[in-house]
Please model this.
Amino acid sequence: ITLFTNDSEIKEVYNDVISAYPDLNSLNVDFSKAFKHYNYYFPDRKIPEVASYISGFNYAIAASDSVLGVGLDMYLGKDYEYYRMIGFPQYKTNNMSSEYIVTDAIKGWIATEFEFNPVDKDMLEQIIHHGKIMYIMDAVFPYSEDTLKIGYTKEQLEWCTNSQVNIWSHFVDNQLLFSTNSKEIMTYLNEGPFTPGMPRESPSKIGVWLGWQIVRAYMERQDEVDLEKLLQAKAPDILKNSKYKPRK
Model:
C-alpha cells in the first residue's frame, strides 16, 4: 500500500485503532466463548493465542501454528477515511467493522487447521469443503446470525434463501458441479460485488453458500454431530446422502 509509507500515517492509524479499541476485553470474552465451543467438538486440537496487530491495511487475519492474529486496522468501520483513500471497494468495506472480527478470525483459524488443496478438485469437492467450514462455524457460533458467519447482508441472505431453487438449477443445468476449470470454479468462490453469471442481486461466493446448505442438509440426516467424521466424508457421498433438492 503506497499510501501507508511514513511515520505520521502509521501513527495516525495506530491512534485510530487505539481509539476504536481502547481495550480488548469484550473481544477476548467472545473469543473465549467461541473456542470453548470449538474445543467441545475438537478436544484434541490446539487453541491458539489471539493477538492483535497493525497490518498496514494488508491482512485482516493471520494464523501461525499457535497464534491467531487480528489486524485491527482492517476493522475500523465501513466509512473509515483511509479505506476510501486506498480504494477498497464497498463490498469489502461493508464487512470491515468490529462485529466481524471474531467470526472472521475463527473462520481463518478453521481454514488453516483443516487444510485443503484445491488442485485437481472439481466444483463439488470445493464447495463442499467450504460448506464443511461453514458448518463448523455453525457449531462454534450457535447463537450468531448467518450474516456474520458468511459476510452477507440480510438482504443478500434472503435473496439466496428465496432463490435456492434457481441457484441449484443454475449449477445442475450448466453442469458446474463436476467442472475442473479453476477459473470457472473461482467465479463461484471469490469475494466480489456479486456472483458473475448470476443476477446482480446475488451476493458473491454463491458456491460457498450452496456448499453450506448441502452440508447442513447432510448433517440433519446424521444421528450425531460428529465434526471429525464430517471432515473425513467425501463430497459425492455428502451430496448423495444429503438428499439436497430444493423445491419451490
